[in-house]
Design goal:
The complex is a heterodimer.
Chain A lengths: L6 H8 L4 E12 L5 E11 L3 E5 L6 H7 L8 E10 L2 E2 L5 H7 L4 E4 L3 H4 L6 H10 L8 H11 L18 H13 L5 E5 L7 H18 L2 E6 L2 H7 L2 E6 L2 E7 H6 L4 H9 L47 E3 L2 E3 L30 E10 L2 E11 L4 E5 L6 H9 L5 E7 L2 E2 L9 H6 E4 L3 H4 L6 H6 L10 H14 L16 H13 L5 E5 L7 H18 L2 E6 L2 H7 L2 E6 L2 E7 H6 L4 H9 L8
Parallel strand pairs in A: 3-8, 3-9, 6-7, 7-8, 15-20, 15-21, 18-19, 19-20
Antiparallel strand pairs in A: 1-2, 1-4, 4-5, 9-10, 10-12, 11-12, 13-14, 13-16, 16-17, 21-22
Chain B lengths: L2 H17 L3 H11 L1 H23 L30 H7 L2 H28 L1 H16 L2 H12 L3 H28 L2 H8 L4 H9 L4 H24 L11 H8 L8 H32 L3 H6 L12
Classes of the chains: A alpha/beta, B mainly alpha.
Chain lengths: 605, 317
């Protein structure tokens, strides 16, 4: 049914430079039980090439990336395979050899440079150390230092080498991380989501630097990310991981333009677009955990195209249209999955009096003022998006609305009623009308309570509500967020991030609110879970006539969910209006810059 | 520390859901299954059993003079006689329960009030935090035994007073541990959410914060129980406590130390019982602490198994 190919065939096809990194049949298992975590991974990366490793959390991409350095987290062992860097097998080295190779021939750029840099040492000391620790480093450390500083575009930062990590901005810190990694001119660099915490503009600049460095140093780079748009713009080859296996591997262009594996197609269908309003489709269900992987194809249970054979046998990589795909149906004619992104129906604008009206809001966090003269309106059954980069004051705005920040002046009116500062001063029925959904679903649910108790909790504040009625309402909202009554007895620990966020939404809905304040509710979720949450919120907005304040830094999401938008910059609203008008024809330079710098699925960086 | 262990833990977590709020029982049970915990628990229960059921098995009255003073052990009097010719075995069997009850009472008092102080200081913050914690610092300035002695010598050797004094002297330690544990919990979003629903401060503390403090509470309770036993026995040894002729392990040591060469058993047996009781309690508490720590803090591979977002940066787990 399918043509078997080894990885050589693919390398010949997509790679024209000199192969630096070659991974052959790599497998990692949990020590002890021997359950496989990552298996059957083969690929190669040539000099100057960047390979993108994408997948949802738990897919094994970070585990694989670390294994490329010959490193595993506690409890995981490399059991099979070879990692050849310029012909030398990293896995055959003694711990001492491996140690001298790390930093020298293989290097790592961590996700959060603030955590990776030593806060007590000056930047210069740390950069010099990165070179001096290797006895075989030849050349003048000072000279090389100046060189790498120039290469990572830190040369104009003045006395940078004299400063401490906390005196640097996030972008500068990440550049220092890059400088450390490239300092010894390694053959392989693994970058683990290095721009996740950065604003779009900084992210764009750092990514440009990454690409320049990789090609000018002729390094083989592996870029791990869950952000498909970033990967699209940066890498030449992409490997999509699912349940510890590479399920699609090929040139970026081909994979993104014509995804073949149903999982890749699902992932791409979940990514919101910056340019038009689209219905987002998440992949339902959860990826199987290590040790619970089913027989046959791991994706079969969630796959819309699954055949009986998918549950029986594991598909082998097949070469289809220039990329390797692990799917029995890869060679067949493309089946329409209806992922054709329908333009979301535009809501009728409601011309009635606004439900929420904010006038000349000035708010402070601690002693510094973060919001200046903010005015905004939210209509009934309308969604207002508040966008801005970190530090723009958008979370403070949310906290003023829901009463968690009392340090403000101005006027907030809800249905004509004044909302006073501080939730303790507001009447309980008003508290119920305005519900807040937190950014981090891992901290929003009490780990010691069952889901039923958590959702039932706000009902305790309603007098004269019968117990039976209470549990009825809990079951009802669980259905509304498509979780089902059997979640009642579970604990938050047993739920995925997306499920937790749905529980948080259910908890908000159970008291029949009129306004939902959603603070970056999808920022800690995978793209597929994000799509499910966004669609759920949109559905609720229409069905229940909910007003919504949707706070986000992701401009593309704004397209999919909101009708109007305000753009916050340093606490000032710089632009406000219809989503389509503001995002398509921004008038403020700040908005234009945000739009220009945001990574897009259809355009290289 | 292999992964089998963690795997079994994740399997157990479905059991956890059914057990629901009784999670603390699970921790106690799991601690009892470790080698250290089993060792401690067996010793602890054995001595506690002697103290509790001993009076029923005492062959003689513990206060009547049945043999000669400091007589050597014999068939009728296995541990010989004490300073006044009373049966040492009967006095040992009869002399533990008051000590144990007083220790438990003092521990309960100290943990309840210490927890109340610690949790309210952490949650309410501000001036209340300052006042409570400075008050705690003042109590802390007195050594525990000296503080109890001070109170007893002012008001007189009443048993309830000793219990209160020892319990009171536990407050600082408990309050400090629970304050730092609740500082972290108080900042969680679910606490904020409860506030936003209009729950009272006391309600938030009881329903949201306290259930998350079970582990430190259990560990503190065990530790304070150990200290209570030692301090109670020490007070008895110094002569503050049950008035003679009532038997008590602590006072028996001081009463019989002059006859150490004639009948050492009259000192060794009560001393050994006190030592074993504290060792047992402490060892089991230690096991509980280890298990509780493992429950609260997930090792990396457990996180991997449970498929928690890798990119999650808040570290709330």
């Amino acid at each position: 049914m399918s043509r078997l190919v080894d990885d050589e065939a693919l390398s010949n096809q997509v790679v024209d430079g000199k192969v630096r990194l070659q991974v052959k049949d790599l497998g990692l298992c949990l020590s002890g039980s021997g359950e496989d975590v990552v298996s059957d991974v083969s690929f190669s990366v040539s000099a100057g090439e960047v390979l993108g490793l994408v997948g949802e959390s738990g897919s094994g991409k970070t585990t694989l990336a670390l294994a490329l350095l010959g490193y595993t987290k506690r409890g995981i062992d490399i059991v099979r395979g070879e990692i050849l860097l310029d012909g030398a097998n990293l896995l055959g080295m003694s711990p001492a050899e491996l140690r001298s190779n790390r930093g020298r021939r293989v290097a790592y750029v961590p996700q959060d440079p603030a955590m990776a840099l030593n806060p007590a040492l000056r930047i210069g000391t740390q950069l010099r150390e990165a070179m001096q620790v290797h006895k075989d480093f030849t050349g003048d450390v000072g000279e090389r230092l100046a060189e790498i500083i120039a290469d990572t575009r830190l040369a104009n930062e003045g006395d940078l080498l004299q400063r401490y990590p906390h005196q640097l901005s996030g972008g500068q810190q990440q550049r220092v991380g890059l400088a450390m990694a490239f300092a010894c001119r390694p053959g392989l660099i693994v970058l683990d989501e290095p721009t996740t915490g950065l604003d779009v503009t900084t992210q764009r600049h750092v990514l440009t630097t990454v690409r320049e460095l990789c090609s000018s140093y002729g390094v083989a780079a592996v870029y791990v990310s869950h952000d498909l748009a970033v990967v699209r713009g940066l890498v030449s080859t992409v490997a999509v991981m699912y349940a510890g296996r590479v399920i699609e591997l090929g040139p970026t262009q081909a994979v993104f333009n014509q995804p073949t594996h149903p999982y890749t197609r699902g992932l791409l269908a979940a990514v919101p677009s910056l340019d038009r309003a689209e219905v987002l489709r998440g992949i339902t269900g959860q990826p199987p955990r290590p040790g619970r992987r089913p027989k046959g194809c791991s994706f079969a249970a969630r796959c819309p195209l699954a055949l009986p054979v998918c549950g029986e046998e594991e598909p082998v990589p097949t070469l289809v249209g220039g990329r390797l795909v692990r799917c029995f149906r890869a060679g067949e004619e493309r089946v329409d999955l209806n992922e054709k992104k329908v333009v979301a129906p535009a809501q009728e604008p409601h011309e009635s009096a606004p439900m929420l009206a904010v006038r000349t809001l000035n708010a402070s966090y601690g002693s510094s003022q973060v919001l200046f003269d903010v005015n905004l309106n939210v209509g009934r059954a309308a969604c207002l998006a508040v966008v801005g980069e970190s530090g723009s004051g958008k979370t403070t705005l949310a906290r003023c609305l829901v009463g968690l920040n009392s340090n403000w002046s101005g006027e907030i009116k809800f249905n004509g009623e004044e909302l006073v500062a501080g939730c303790r001063n507001r009447p309980k029925n008003l508290l119920r009308k305005v519900q807040y959904i937190f950014q981090n679903p891992y901290s929003a649910l009490n780990p010691r309570k069952t889901i039923g108790q958590i959702i039932g909790q706000p009902l305790e504040q309603i007098p004269d509500l019968l117990y039976s009625e209470r549990s009825q309402r809990v079951v009802q909202v669980l259905e509304d967020v498509s979780l089902g009554a059997d979640f009642m007895s579970r604990l938050p620990d047993q739920l995925s991030g997306g499920e937790r966020q749905r529980v948080a939404i259910a908890r908000a809905l159970v008291v029949d609110p009129e306004l939902l304040v959603c603070d970056e509710v999808t920022s800690s979720l995978d793209v597929s879970a994000q799509a499910i949450i966004v669609e759920l919120l949109r559905k609720l907005q229409v069905e229940r006539g909910l007003g919504m304040v949707f706070i986000t830094h992701n401009l593309a999401l704004v397209r999919s969910i909101a009708q109007s938008v305000v753009v916050l910059n340093q606490g000032h609203i710089v632009e406000a209006g219809d989503v389509d008008k503001v995002l398509s024809h921004p008038t403020d330079p700040y908005t234009s810059r945000l739009m220009a710098d945001a990574p897009r699925l259809n355009q290289p960086i | 520390m292999n992964v089998d262990y963690h795997l079994s833990r994740t399997r157990e977590s479905s059991l956890l859901a059914r057990v629901g709020r009784q999670q603390w029982l699970l921790v106690l049970r799991r601690a009892a299954r470790t080698r250290r915990g089993m060792f401690g628990l067996i010793i602890m229960l054995f001595i506690a059993l002697i103290a509790a059921l001993g009076p029923l098995f005492a062959p003689h009255s513990s206060t009547s003079f049945v043999t000669s003073s400091f007589s050597a052990p014999s068939a009728a009097y296995p541990f010989g006689g004490d300073d006044l010719g009373r049966d040492v075995l009967s006095r040992v069997l009869d002399g533990g329960w008051v000590l144990l009850l007083m220790a438990i009472g003092a521990t309960a008092f100290g943990v309840i009030f210490g927890a109340a102080v610690g949790v309210s200081a952490a949650y309410l913050r501000g001036r209340i935090d300052g006042v409570l914690m400075r008050a705690v610092d003042i109590i802390l300035a007195f050594p525990q035994l000296v503080f109890a002695l001070l109170l007893v010598s002012i008001i007189g050797p009443k048993l309830w007073l000793i219990v209160l004094a020892v319990g009171f002297s536990h407050i600082p330690a408990v309050a400090r541990v629970l304050r730092s544990a609740s500082l972290d919990v108080s900042e969680r979003d679910y606490v904020k959410y409860a506030e936003m629903q209009g729950f009272s401060r006391v309600g938030v503390m009881f329903k949201e914060i306290l259930p998350n403090l079970i582990s430190p509470l259990m560990v503190e309770t065990g530790l304070r129980l150990t200290y209570s036993i030692v301090v109670m026995a020490g007070l008895e040894f110094l002569g503050f406590g049950q008035p003679p002729p009532a038997p008590n392990w602590g006072s028996m040591i001081s009463e019989n130390q002059i006859g150490l060469s004639a009948n050492p058993w009259a000192v060794i047996v009560p001393a050994l019982l006190i030592a074993l009781l504290t060792i047992g309690t402490n060892t089991y508490t230690d096991a509980v602490a280890r298990v509780a720590l493992g429950v609260e803090r997930k090792p990396e591979e457990a996180v991997l198994l449970e498929n928690v977002a890798v990119g999650e940066s808040t570290g709330s787990l």
